[in-house]
Design brief:
By secondary structure, the protein is an alpha/beta fold. It contains 15 helices and 13 strands.
């Protein structure tokens, strides 16, 4: 058996794809990962064959870099959820379909060369989906984020399928946002169909390019987290294969984090690669942890350690931390609601406090709130005192009502069965 994985050159997207690829490799399959050069070393270190495939004009290896687009995004987050979603929607008019004819030709060449039994495509990589769709080849879609990233029913791509209680928007303002998103969806689908016609000349246009998917859809999530209202609307051949969590060990210099500290509880904090620029929110979290007297490990990313205030001697503060390994020894995780963080925390069986800023983070937060696995705060409005109280309550609550473990056999069957 052979598996071809088409991965965007973004570490956060490669991560869950790599977990699926590893399950296939362990079962004896040949695995080829096609992605950009920034991820080549990581792909080969994971034991996969690497083939070059450029799917976009930019990349993200997981390290924060200065970028005007990031600055624009961070500024939008200060305006709140609707301002952020609007900004991201407008960006989608231009940045989601890079050189589609070239990408489609490169994907076709890869398929001819490798002749894989299965091709795995990241749903958010719309150029990959277009290339496979245009070629008429069967493929499997992975939805790496919240399941609503593949819209069903009346959902709109980029608009939360549900909202946490503390962040429900004004209905009138939400309607205005939905009108913007509808306009962007029409424009993007027109561009997608134009590229499709240029590539094939004989494929029928699609009604909504954000809803195109392979013959099978995999979700990086667990079924217990899925809203009951969405279940009947999901694609016929869909499978929840999450949490897709990589294996990771603590480095020697951080082994103390895994050792018991008696009555002092341990809290891991990270806001992701881009949102680590929100130093004001990280500072509020740090103050709340000081008020509680918890031992903290904080991945500060783009924030300077000086902006966090006094750092207790037993805290771990670094630009990057091994998140999966850190979560295994944490009593609580505080994060931004990205799906990788949500699934990793579920796999670790740890409670979550979520401060969502953008995209599917609101839907993830609403799901955690609905099943009782997490608490949610508006990052622009919460105070350190409010957060400290929630930390105390979360640390006193046990066990977590929803947790899950990675299962290679489930993943392999989802690919090839």
């Amino acid at each position: 058996m052979s598996l071809l994985v088409l991965s965007p050159e973004f570490a956060s997207h490669y991560g869950p794809l790599a977990v699926i690829a590893e399950a296939a490799r362990r079962s004896g399959s040949r695995v080829v990962v096609a992605t950009g050069p920034e991820l080549r070393a990581r792909v080969e270190a994971d034991g996969f064959e690497w083939r070059p495939l450029q799917l976009g004009a930019s990349s993200n290896s997981g390290i924060v870099d200065r970028d005007p687009g990031i600055a624009r995004f961070i500024e939008a987050t200060r305006g709140g959820p609707l301002a952020t979603i609007r900004s991201q929607a407008l960006d989608r008019e231009t940045d989601l379909l890079w050189q589609p004819e070239r990408v489609a030709a490169d994907i076709d060449d890869l398929c001819e060369s490798i002749n894989p039994e299965c091709v795995l495509v990241d749903h958010v990589s719309f150029g990959s989906t277009l290339g496979m769709y245009a070629a008429g080849r069967p493929f499997v879609t992975l939805v790496p984020g919240h399941p609503s990233q593949l819209p069903v029913g009346t959902e709109r791509y980029g608009v939360p399928s549900d909202w946490p209680d503390r962040m429900r928007p004004d209905p009138g303002e939400l309607t205005e946002l939905e009108q913007v998103v509808d306009r962007v969806t029409i424009a993007f689908t027109r561009r997608w169909n134009s590229a499709l016609a240029s590539i094939t000349g004989d494929q029928s246009p699609v009604a909504d390019s954000f809803r195109v998917h392979g013959s099978r859809v995999l979700y990086n999530s667990v079924p217990e987290m899925n809203s009951p209202a969405r279940s009947a609307l999901l694609p016929n051949d869909h499978r929840f294969v999450g949490p897709l969590v990589r294996e990771e060990q603590l480095p020697a210099e951080m082994q103390s984090w895994s050792e018991s500290t008696g009555c002092q509880r341990q809290v891991y904090v990270a806001l992701g690669t881009f949102l680590s620029h929100r130093s004001d929110v990280l500072a509020v979290i740090a103050e709340a942890l000081r008020l509680v007297g918890a031992r903290a490990a904080i991945a500060i990313g783009a924030t300077s350690v000086d902006e966090l205030g006094r750092i207790p001697e037993n805290w771990l503060v670094a630009r990057e931390l091994p998140q999966v390994a850190m979560m295994r020894s944490a009593d609580l995780v505080i994060h931004h609601g990205g799906n990788n963080s949500v699934q990793e925390a579920l796999a670790a069986g740890v409670r979550q406090i979520v401060l969502p800023f953008s995209t599917d983070q609101f839907s993830n937060a609403a799901d955690l709130e609905r099943v009782g696995a997490g608490s949610v705060f508006a990052p622009n409005e919460t105070t350190s005192e409010e957060l400290a109280q929630s930390i105390e309550e979360a640390l006193a609550s046990w066990p977590v009502p929803v947790s899950a473990a990675v299962a290679d056999d489930r993943i392999f069957d989802a690919l090839f069965a």
